[in-house]
Sequence to fold (64 residues):
Amino acid sequence: MIRRLLRALLRLDRHEWVGAACAVVFIGGIVVAYGDRQQRDELAQSTLTACEGCGKTAVAARQP
Fold:
């Protein structure tokens, strides 16, 4: 299977290589951006819960 993939890659011409490289860079950018977003969301979540017991409270709903 790997040999077949390598043979297919060796048959590509210059334009196909450029297109393949652009696709890899584009998909890699999406993956990195998604990972960064997940990390920021986790950091924001941890800072919201880190204040438990510090005396600051927030009321989410009005009580009757």
The radius of gyration is 24 Å. The mean pLDDT is 78. Helices lie at 2-10, 14-49.
